[in-house]
């Protein structure tokens, strides 16, 4: 038996079955069920839905149900994200606590980089030099190439008067030299240590200036001398400005 009324909330008459279906839907949504917890709609509701597809209230209730399901999903995602943030916060607090404990216990901080670290190191004292020629020179065989302009002379080991470097301390040193020849000529020079030749430079080019370079790493005793010498072969012109002589200690050694 069905009981009908002329108007219900301003809408056409609804049967008792219809009213029961609407109330069932609203009660189910108001409890905030998750997707997995959402109870199935009663059979009466399903029957009423099937016969009332064109009813405006059915479409509105269906839309509300969909919005509630989306809200449940969104809240579940937010809850998971919040749990992750809380976990990361606890980890950061543990790191900060450990850093504070290290600071209180006097743990030394890492040494900062210093461009003068080499000069202050016990294994590498501040001994280095660099010099260049300020003018063109015509030399004789076995003459010393005197680089008259000093660029750097840490430790005062190089003499611009003699063109020679004298080792202030025993150690392993590195020496480098570049010689530029005159135009369309050649010149040969050598790196000398205590009258012993250790490296040669050949400089020359056809219809041009030519440069030659070389380097050597050697062990020196305190007082050993190092310089650049002109050899017998080739010409005798050493071009200024581009010709240089440099050296530095790498490691201090015991005498």
Automatic annotation (TrEMBL):
UniProt xrefs under Pfam families: C1q (PF00386)
InterPro entries referenced in this protein's UniProt entry, alphabetically: C1q_dom, Collagen/C1q_domain, Tumour_necrosis_fac-like_dom
Compartment list: Secreted
Xref: Gene3D superfamilies: 2.60.120.40
GO cellular component terms, semicolon-separated: extracellular region
SMART domains per record: C1Q
Keywords (A to Z) from UniProt: Secreted, Signal
Signal peptide segment: 1-32
Domain C1q, chain residue ranges per copy: 122-255
Residue stretches spanning the membrane: none
PANTHER family associated with the record: COMPLEMENT C1Q TUMOR NECROSIS FACTOR-RELATED PROTEIN 2-LIKE, EMILIN ELASTIN MICROFIBRIL INTERFACE-LOCATED PROTEIN ELASTIN MICROFIBRIL INTERFACER
Protein name: C1q domain-containing protein
């Amino acid at each position: 038996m069905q009981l009908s009324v002329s108007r219900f909330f301003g809408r056409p008459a609804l049967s008792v079955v219809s009213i029961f279906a609407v109330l069932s839907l609203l009660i189910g949504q108001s409890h905030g069920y998750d997707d997995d917890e959402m109870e199935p709609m009663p059979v009466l509701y399903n029957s009423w839905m099937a016969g009332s597809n064109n009813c405006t209230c059915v479409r509105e209730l269906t839309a509300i149900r969909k919005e509630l399901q989306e809200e449940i999903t969104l809240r579940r995602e937010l809850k998971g994200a919040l749990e992750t943030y809380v976990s990361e916060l606890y980890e950061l607090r543990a790191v900060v606590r450990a850093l504070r404990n290290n600071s209180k216990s006097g743990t030394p901080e890492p040494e900062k980089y210093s461009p003068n670290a080499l000069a202050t190191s016990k294994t590498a004292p501040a001994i280095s030099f660099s010099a260049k020629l300020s003018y063109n020179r015509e030399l004789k065989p076995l003459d010393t190439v005197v680089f008259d302009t000093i660029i750097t002379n840490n430790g005062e080991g190089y003499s611009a008067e003699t063109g020679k470097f004298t080792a202030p301390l025993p150690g392993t040193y590195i020496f480098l030299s570049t010689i530029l020849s005159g135009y369309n000529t050649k010149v040969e020079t050598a790196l000398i240590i205590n009258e012993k030749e250790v490296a040669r430079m050949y400089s020359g080019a056809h219809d041009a200036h030519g440069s030659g370079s070389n380097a050597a790493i050697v062990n020196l005793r305190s007082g050993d001398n190092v310089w650049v010498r002109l050899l017998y072969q080739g010409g005798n012109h050493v071009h200024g400005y581009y010709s240089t002589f440099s050296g530095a200690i790498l490691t201090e050694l015991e005498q």
